[in-house]
Amino acid sequence: MKYLCSIIFVLISYSVVFGESIHDDLNHMSLNMYNELAKKHKGHVKNFVYSPYPVADILGLLSIGARGETASQIKSVLTMNLTDEKIGKEFKVLGKSLRSSDKISIQTAEKMYVAEGLVIEPEFVKVAHDSFDAGVENINFADSKAATKSINSWVEKQTNNKIKNIIPENTLDDLTRLVLVNTLYFKGNWEHPFKLSATSKAKFHNTKSESVDVDMMKLSATLQIGKDDSFGVSILRLPYEDDKAELLIILPNEIERFKPIENQLEKLWDIQNYTSTRVSVFLPRFRVESTMNLIPLLKNMGIKLLFEGADLKGITKEPIGVSAFQQKAFIDVDEFGTEAGAAAAAIADNRAVLEEPSEVFRVDHPFMFTLMYDGLEIMSGRVEKL
């Protein structure tokens, strides 16, 4: 039984391609985020993981409170050429779709912590409540220790104690005006669990000349695989018990194909023909953790004014700007399922079948992954070295 937790909090002190649905828009934003992270780590062997949904949710709310070019830049990155009213409606529907079933647990939560004495525009509070289901709490940021404890406790509760101390001591002070927090929590099991007894040591090739011993999980099941031989890539879909959730493993056919494929990820969208086949899967247990400052990334994507001269008069008439925007994330994959989590801060056994596998999907070299729920990317990243 594994988990996904995602938290994002925004600390506020003193040629766009538009999709046919909010899922398309946000998945396109996720692709852009991946490209920026890959550029950042160009020339370095670096695993990373990030959660696009909480980033998008906070940006969606901020876009409604922003004005002028500040709002335009945010909407451009969200790839949403929509009115504020339509953005609110889209995120409201999306939030309601991220709900638990009898097979998995998934929940989202959002909250605004407002400095005592700061007047928030009533319309913004209404939109935050009605469209983003965000609660509001007045707090004394000048009492840094108490404010930090209060927010961290709320985050821990929303993430089943998976994320602790998201706000470090001495981060908040009397200049802090507003903190926005968004959480996403997921818990589920594989539809086809890997047998624990089948896991054994095997080689994972970080490069053609370097390999390490890893715990390699094994599974034989009928699964969907998509291929593009000309592009040199295969994609395995690993479903959870709730068929809305799945983990995509994006595997280059050769080690040398990792970078070329990563540089042209949009081509993966062209892979539409998935074939159900009996397959033997060899997948290493893996855990990836990342902490990243999202301001440079978002600036490169086109959001600049939010961090340098923001117009947020739709939130409050008091001059404010985003001083920090960070995310912490992790993903942990084992025989039973996936544990993943993200925190962003700106100051988220089947029985054997007597049938011979017709194909082998061996993940023994660098790969990429995407955790999907109902067609929405909620966690993505890469494993380049184990």
Automatic annotation (TrEMBL):
Record-linked Pfam families: Serpin
GO molecular-function term, one example from the UniProt record: serine-type endopeptidase inhibitor activity
Entry-linked SMART domains: SERPIN
Domain Serpin: 31-386
Protein name per Swiss-Prot or TrEMBL: Serpin domain-containing protein
Organism: Henosepilachna vigintioctopunctata
Keyword terms of this UniProt record: Protease inhibitor, Serine protease inhibitor, Signal
Family: Belongs to the serpin family.
A Gene Ontology term for the protein's cellular component: extracellular space
Signal peptide: 1-19
